[in-house]
Design a protein that fits this description.
With about 190 residues, the chain is mainly alpha-helical. It has one domain. About 70% of the residues lie in helices and about 0% in strands. Helix 3 packs antiparallel against helix 9, helix 4 runs antiparallel to helix 5 and helix 5 runs parallel beside helix 8. The radius of gyration is 22 Å and the shape is globular.
Length: about 190
C-alpha cells in the first residue's frame, strides 16, 4: 500500500513540474520540423523521384561509356531540375532560404570554378551563409552542388570519370533523403 502511495506522489510531482514548465517563458523553438512529418508537395516529391531516376540514368550512361558531352547535358538537366525543387523545399524550410539561394548561384558560376573551389565553397559551405538554427538544408543543397561539380569535372582537360561517377551516384542518395525527410544535417561534407 505504501508503495502505491510513493508512485502516486511521483506522478503528481511530475504533473506539477510539467504544468509549471508550461507557464515559463522560453526562447522560440528553432525550426526543426522533419520533412518526413510535414512533407513536400506532391509535385516536389515527383520531381525528386524524377531527379533520382535521372541521376541513376546518368551513372548507367557513364558506365556504358557515354561521351563527356552527353554526360554534361544530363548533369545540366539535373542542375536545372534542382532549381525547380529548391523553392518547394524552402517553402517547407524557410530557414534554408538564404543558404539555398546562395547555393543556386553555382548554376551560373560552375564553368568558372575548378572542382577544388566548388568543394571548398559549396560542399564545405565556405561561400554560403549559415542556415537558420535547426534548418535542415544539407541534402537539398547537394541536389544543386553535385551536378555542378560533375559539370566542372567534365569541363576539365583530363576528366576523372570515377569522380564524376561518385558525384552523381551520391546525388541520388541525397534526393532520396530529401524525399523521405531522413538523415538531414549530416556533417560528412559530401
Amino acid at each position: 500500500m505504501q508503495e502505491r502511495s510513493v508512485y502516486r506522489t511521483g506522478w503528481v510531482l511530475a504533473g506539477v513540474l510539467a504544468l509549471a514548465a508550461c507557464g515559463q517563458d522560453s526562447e522560440p523553438a528553432a525550426e526543426s520540423v522533419s520533412l518526413g512529418t510535414i512533407g513536400l508537395s506532391e509535385q516536389a516529391s515527383e520531381q525528386l523521384g524524377a531527379y533520382a531516376e535521372q541521376a541513376q540514368a546518368f551513372v548507367a550512361a557513364l558506365d556504358e561509356g557515354a561521351d563527356n558531352a552527353d554526360l554534361a547535358h544530363q548533369a545540366q538537366a539535373l542542375l536545372d531540375l534542382s532549381a525547380q525543387i529548391i523553392p518547394e523545399y524552402v517553402e517547407v524550410y524557410p530557414g534554408c532560404d538564404a543558404h539555398l539561394t546562395a547555393a543556386l548561384k553555382i548554376r551560373e558560376q560552375w564553368s568558372a570554378l575548378d572542382p577544388d573551389t566548388i568543394e571548398r565553397d559549396y560542399h564545405q559551405d565556405a561561400a554560403l551563409p549559415e542556415p537558420a538554427p535547426g534548418a535542415d538544408c544539407y541534402h537539398a543543397k547537394d541536389l544543386v552542388v553535385h551536378p555542378a561539380t560533375a559539370l566542372a569535372l567534365l569541363n576539365q582537360p583530363e576528366v576523372d570519370r570515377q569522380q564524376v561517377r561518385h558525384e552523381m551516384a551520391e546525388v541520388a542518395a541525397h534526393a532520396g533523403a530529401v524525399r523521405s525527410g531522413v538523415g538531414f544535417n549530416s556533417g560528412d561534407g559530401d
